[in-house]
Amino acid sequence: MIVIDREKCIGCGLCVKDCPANKLKVEDGKAVYTPECIQCGHCVAVCPRAAVSIPEYDMDDVEEYDADTFTVDPDNLLHSLKFRRSIRNYQDRHIEEEKLEKILEAGRYAPTAKNSQSTRFIVLEKELGTFRDLLWEQVPDLADKMKETAPHYAMLFKFMYRRRKKNPEDDPLFFNAPTCVLIAADNPLDGGLAAAGMEHMAVAEGAGVLYSGYIQRIIEASPALKEWLGIPDTAVACFMLLGYPAVTYRRTAPRKTADVERR
Ligand SMILES: Cc1cc2nc3c(=O)[nH]c(=O)nc-3n(C[C@H](O)[C@H](O)[C@H](O)COP(=O)(O)O)c2cc1C
After folding, report:
1. 3-state SS assignment for residue 122
2. Which fold has domain 74-243?
3. Probe ligand 1: pick from 81, 175, 193, 211, max atoms within 8 Å of CB?
4. Distance from the alpha carbon of residue 213 to the mean position of ligand 1, in angstroms
5. CA 82 to chain centre
6. pTM score > 0.90 for this model?
């Protein structure tokens, strides 16, 4: 449902032009909405008079944007993208609450297919220890089950399990990260885009993340873990470790040349 304030609307038609679903038209000098749309909010964002609202959302959340004064330095942004590293060594301290909120906010504002906004973020902090123990407990059985379908992972997980058994301080899955965030999404790209935004926000806050494909695989193979997490039927798009790096990188890591075809 889109609501247009007829007092404020000047019938400029900017919302009509920008509506991806063609659900708006100008009639008698005022914008008019025909249900139903995906509530992408472009009509809210583009209106020069703030005449459009979507009651389903918290409209106090909407921020004004001044294209003349707001800038992102492209070189700085590229530096940040290049200096970002996967973190496998964490300081023993939690991310401050307001920083964590910003990181989650970056995930919330990621685009989603059909604007579904159905991505879920499960932050593990207080219960991380319980979850970690539960996951490690499952590893030997899951590794056995993977012998046929994924023998490489079966061997790897067994090796990791033995390593941790020998020294519980040496955790080759969780790397003693103080926080983990699971991103659940039926569309994997929705979750991936949220994760990327969150990672870059984390870097801007002086923190860092590791996407753990291993943990993601273990959770996906374990109905008990999915049940514990409250996502029995939703796919895990990303399992992210999050915290302050206990390692300082001095330069970028090299990369292959990009496989780009321009036609
Ligand atoms: C989807 C995905 C899953 C990953 N899973 C793991 C993992 O399970 N364990 C790990 O140590 N690193 C994992 N990584 C990190 C990659 O190994 C890392 O991105 C790559 O080596 C490049 O290093 P950089 O991120 O520091 O540039 C994963 C990365 C991605 C994007």
Report:
1. strand
2. NADH Oxidase (3.40.109)
3. 211
4. 7
5. 19
6. yes
